[in-house]
Amino acid sequence: MNLALQKHRNSLEKLFIYFILLQPALDILAYFNIPISIILRVVAMGMGFIYILILPGDKERKVALIYIITLSLFMVIHFTNNLRVKEQFMMSLEITYIIKSVFFVELLIVYVFVIRSFSLKGNWQRIIQLYIFINMVSIAAVMLLAGLSDTAKRSYGALAKEGHSGWFFSGNELSVILGMGFSMMVLYMINQKSRLKKAQLLPFIGLVIWAMLTIGTKVSFGSIIIVLGISILVLIPKIVRNKKDWFNVITLSALLAATILITPSTSIGNNLSFSFGIDFTNQENRPSAMEEDHENEGQLQQNLLSGRSDFLNNIKKQYREAPLSQKLFGMGFGSNYVVSPKLIEMDFLDWYYNFGLIGFVLLMLPLIYIGYHILINIFNYHLKKINLVIVLVGLSVSLGLGSAMIAGHVLSSPASSIYLGIFIAYLFALAKQQRSSYIKK
Question: Would the keyword Membrane be found if you checked this record's keyword annotation (predicted)?
């Protein structure tokens, strides 16, 4: 019986690893309104629960099962309460939002167990990095094809803003996915042993950089600058110490310089000029520094929040006026809206107002628990020496969580949340390692 369960566990683990490669295809199917993506992601949730159920009976497995069951019971209470209390109640939207939110939390827990087991294999990191690399290139290639065929979806409704997301539903979601995945691409290239292999990967990295600039969002543009900049800073001390990795530094520096040089002629260049008043070409007749600072201070805050502040104030008012049951169990999708439901698009705030105080705490528990153990293990085992792998995987996680805080479309979107869950689980497995011999020097 134990051998049979072990065989089933191994099969499920392989399926979840291969499931990573399916993500771009699922997102394209969703764009063309083919419901296979929804079905497969719901099936993945069911298989994830079965996987945890048949794991060996250690303490972490029991805690995970108790948590998932408790969260499921909460969601039933949350849904029932809003069905009873909420004046405007769209059942399909409420159920979809619940499933999307639970998807991230459950798949995060599942991938923590899957990657923990997968990390016992010698080539586990290379496989994960390669699969993410393939996904990012696939996304960029689809964007290129959609752009050449003039069938791409615009990133913005405003005509003054440029950019497209190819055959993917949301430019914001796509920018977060590419922002997190770009760090893995850089890591995969650095870990190649020969310069020829590194050089062969550069056209693909260049294609992804083009795609990130073409989306036209600040998140994807900022991710390129942050990832390349920090990678260079981490690698420079290694050159000073052992005269190695100079090829990596030169290559990454060239990519960073090229990105900055071509930015004015890209969609993000246009949008930065539109949003912040940056004139990349004409520096004449500009206002004085004091006038410019005064004019742009309020505009900067408004653009960073993308107009979310007004809706946030409205949600706060609804929350104050909501009954106690909604304060505890949440106001549901779009809160107590009058005309049409809308998210704040700042994921953690959406969690708080839509699922209430109890729901927010429940949804945050896995992030707090896993995050705490990641930090403790890093301080215990990896603080003495800068570890490039942990830095870059940590960057992927930080970019995902940071985007969730200010831009949304991460925790409530399976397309992007699954990547965040994978990267958190990857970082958890890395941090738990007490020796760094598995990491390329």
Answer: yes
Residue 426 in domain: yes
Distance of CA 58 to the CA centre of its chain: 30
pLDDT tens for 85-107 read: 998 899 999 999 999 999 999 99
* Alpha-carbon distance values, 436 to 116, 236, 395 (Å): 16, 20, 19
What angle do the packed helices 246-262 and 171-190 form, to 10 degrees?
Answer: 150
CB atoms within 10 A of CB 282: 7
Number of domains in the chain: 2
- Per the structure, the complete domain to which residue 272 belongs is given by 125-306
In a domain, 311, yes or no: no
pTM of the model: 0.90
Residue that terminates a domain, selected from 306, 341, 370: 306
| The pLDDT of residue 438 | 38
SS3 state of residue 154 = strand
Residues 6+ apart with CB under 8 A from 119: 429, 433
Percent helix, strand, coil in the chain (nearest 5)?
75, 0, 25
Residue 106 has which token pair?
Answer: 């459950």
Q: Which of 259, 274, 306 is the last residue of a domain?
A: 306
